[in-house]
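[job 4471] stage=fold_predict status=RUNNING
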Amino acid sequence: MNELFKEHIFSVSDLTERLKEVLEGLFRNITVEGELFDFRPASSGHWYFQLHDKEASIQGVMFKSKSWQVPFIPKDGDRVTVTGSVSVYAKRGNYQIICETMKLSGEGDLLALVEARKREFANLGYFDSERKRPLPPYPKKIGVITSPTGAAVRDILQVLKRRNPTIDVVVLPAAVQGVGAAEEIAAQIERANRLKIGDLLIVGRGGGSLEDLMPFSEKVVIEAIIASELVVVSAVGHEIDWALSDYAADLRAPTPSAAAELVAPLLDDILATYRGKIEIMGHLLSRRIDKVKGQMSLFTKERMGEFFRRKLEQAHLRSDDNRREIERTLAEKLRLAKTKRQSLLSQLEVLSPLSVLKRGYSIVTTKEGGAIVSHSNQLSVGQGITLKFAQGGAEALIEEIKDEESE
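[job 4471] inference complete, writing structure tokens
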């Protein structure tokens, strides 16, 4: 090869084009592992970053059409494995890898991340048993937060319809894996609480890898579950699967179908319970009626006569007591009236003109007209007057008139 091109002079464009053909032809659909560095998500949804190890680095790009499918939010320092193809950018003479997929390197690293979050949330008290609330015994409406097209929602709806078709079910659709899934799940939990949708919530999805289930271990979802006023049942994956939502929720169901079984009592069982209660109430009522009948049977003609005689005697006694009380009250009122009358007579006696006359005074009136005389200027010589004493009276003629100055 060296001899073939020994005498050949390449232009920059020619050499770059040859390299582009070779590199892009040989390195298609390859897998590369490295550590993320200079991770820059663009507003367009494209991701730009560097992959490096101890010895080298390579530029990487992932376009929006692929980035939204990544089940976690990458950050600098994450060790990841990407698949893609090498692309040469001729104008700059550099190359990069255009990525189709990205995942954290190894389940071990992902599990370590989840375990670290688990310890963090446990220290905050998010998983304490004291937080757990019981399921509503007879829910009327249930909210289901999951993918609207997955097998999980079909399983839940089928089980709920079989067990109790009277329960209303509201499906709140959300992505359950990929970028943005955790935010959608959290938003639907918040919405269900804000609008009071249902008596409880089932949050979950079908089975998958630890990477697929990562949205249910994200902080935003855990905090939404903790803040929920509605009871939350976590139903993530199959029996062997788990996510941090299982620990934060009020109840963990091993599968979505099992969640529906747990939250919805059988309609036949509910009806049987009510029939049993009605039967018990009927028995209690019958016993009560029998007891009353037994008590009424004790009231024979003789017993009834004795009963009413006692009642009549008691009425007579109360009547006598009332009569005596009335007589006592009237006597007291009569005594008070007599006392008041005597007091008034005494006052009249003091104020009566006759009392004044008894003390030696008399009343002088004109003989004609009977006007009371209180001053000498009311009289004239030769005028007839009448004198009224305490007992009896007299008539007289005026011979002389004296005023106060002549006395």
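[job 4471] summary: Residues 342 and 348 are 10 Å apart (CA to CA).
[job 4471] exit 0
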